[in-house]
C-alpha cells in the first residue's frame, strides 16, 4: 500500500493505494468508502432520499419460531442490538457479499446509522428467526451517481511525481474533516489527474436476503 499526501486548495489529504483495483463490497452515503451493510458510514456522506415506489416489494416469510425466552414474540425495534445473516445481490442476480455460511452473524444496533439505510429499515420490525428478501434502491444504499464528484487535480507538490494508473482505485483521507473515501482514477496527464469520488457502488440497486437470529436489548 502506497501512501502520499496531496494538497487540494487548503485541504490536505492522504492517498493510500488500494491493492486491488476493483472494489466490490458495499456503507452509507454517496461517496463513502466501501464496506458491508453492517459497516459504519465513512467518507463524504451526502445522505439518502425517500424509498421509490417503482421497485417490487418482496414477501417476508418466517423460517422458525419468533418466540423469545419470555414466551413473547420478539420484534426488532430502534435501540436493539441485532445479529443477522444476509446475502446481497446486484440486480442481475450476482452475489456481491454473503455471510450465510459464516459461523458468526453480523451485529449492529438499530438506529445508530451503522448500516446502510435500506438494510436497517428492512431489519426494523422483523421477528426473531424471521427471514425475508427485500429490494434496496441506490438512494437507500450508497446514493445516486453524482457527476459533480468527478474532480481534476493539478499534479503539484507531493503528487507531482506519483505514478497514477487509470482505472485503479485509491483511498483518500481528508485531514481537515477526518473523512475517508475511495476515488477511481479516470485520466492522467503530466499536469493533472482526474478522479471519481463516487462510492464504487453508487447508483446500484440491491436485493438482500436477511435472517434475524438474535435481538438484545439494553
Layout of strands and helices, then pairs:
Blueprint lengths: L2 E6 L2 E7 L43 E2 L18 E10 L4 E4 L7 E4 L7 H7 L6 E7 L13 E5 L14 E6 L4 E10 L3 E5 L9 E11 L2
Antiparallel strand pairs: 1-2, 2-9, 3-7, 4-5, 4-6, 4-12, 7-12, 8-11, 9-10, 10-11
What does this structure look like?
The structure is a single chain. The chain has one helix at residues 117-123, and strands at residues 3-8, 11-17, 61-62, 81-90, 95-98, 106-109, 130-136, 150-154, 169-174, 179-188, 192-196, 206-216. The chain is mainly β. It has two domains: 3-26 and 144-196, no CATH class; 61-142 and 204-216, Chitinase A, domain 3, CATH 3.10.50. A hairpin with a 3-residue loop joins β10 (179-188) and β11 (192-196). The chain is elongated.
CATH class of the largest domain: Alpha Beta
The number of distinct structural domains comes to: 2
* CATH second-level architecture of the largest domain: Roll
Radius of gyration: 20 Å
Strand order of the largest sheet: 1-2-9-10-11-8
| Quaternary structure of the protein | single chain
Largest sheet: 6 strands, antiparallel
